[in-house]
Each structure stands twice: as C-alpha cells, then as structure tokens.
Amino acid sequence: METIERAPTFAEIGRRIKAYREKLGYTQEDLARVLKVSRPVVTKIENGKKAINALELKKISDILGINVNDLLKPVKEESIVAFFREGKDDEQFYEAVKEIENIFNAIIAQIELRERENG
C-alpha cells in the first residue's frame, strides 16, 4: 500500500516532546521552569491543546538536546486511496467500509429526523 507523508499534528508533536522529556528524566515542572511557563502550559503543549510556534519549538528542542526536526518529522500513513487504486480484494476491509457507511447513513437519518421535528 502506498504511504503518504503529512505534517505532524500539535498532539503528535506534544507526544514527541513528552517522550524526549521523560527519556531525559525531566518532569513537566523542570521543563516549565526552563521555558519560564507554568506546568499546566507544558501539560497543554504535550497534550496538543496549545499551539506552539517555531521559536517555542526551537527553545524546547534546545532544552531537550535534540534537533527541531526530531519534533517536526513527517508522519507516514498508508493511503486508503492507494489501497483502492491497487485493486486489493480484502473482504474484511470491505466489511469495515460497509459498516462505516451504515454509521454515516444512521447519522444522516438522525439529522433529517431532527430537522423535520424542528420544522
């Protein structure tokens, strides 16, 4: 199956920061102190709840002793489109797609029902 690369999400960057921090034995409090932010801000960064800019990424990577590219490394994913393009015949995959289609149809039916009820 063809793989595609995409930019990491803030949550994925945060997980990488956490992994490097823990590998070094630093606490969130340690990182917060050096960054001159509160521990809850570090928690938000690691959970992907706070967007961080290039300067913050550089500062964090310097503190952790890594290259900023280690945090921004693209994420590789298998492409569903490529799966179909390859013409694979996988019954389990088709059943999963059918189940997803059934879920979408149920959601659409609920939306239409609510729209009719609300006039």
Keywords:
mainly alpha; 7% strand; 67% helix; 2 domains; 119 residues; 434 Repressor (Amino-terminal Domain)
Task: Kindly summarize this structure in a few lines.
This protein is 67% helix and 7% strand. The protein is built from seven helices and two strands; from the N terminus they run βαααααβαα.
Structural write-up:
The chain is mainly alpha-helical and 119 residues long. The chain contains seven helices and two strands; from the N terminus they run E-H-H-H-H-H-E-H-H. It has a two-stranded antiparallel ribbon. Helix 2 packs across helix 3 (39-46). The longest helix has 27 residues, at 91-117. The radius of gyration is 21 Å and the shape is flat. The termini are far apart. The mean pLDDT is 88.
The number of helical elements comes to 7
Give the neighbour order of strands across the main sheet: 1-2
CATH-derived architecture of the largest domain: Orthogonal Bundle
Low-confidence stretches: none
End-to-end C-alpha gap: 47 Å
Could you give a short account of the major beta sheet? 2 strands, antiparallel
Remind me, CATH topology of the largest domain? Answer: 434 Repressor (Amino-terminal Domain)
Mean pLDDT: 88
Count of individual beta strands: 2
Shape: flat
CATH class of the largest domain: Mainly Alpha
Structure class: mainly alpha
Helix and strand run: EHHHHHEHH
Percent of sequence in beta strands? 5-15%
State the helicity in percent bands: 55-70%
Structural domain tally: 2
**Alpha-carbon Rg, integer:** 21 Å
What is the CATH superfamily label of the largest domain?
lambda repressor-like DNA-binding domains
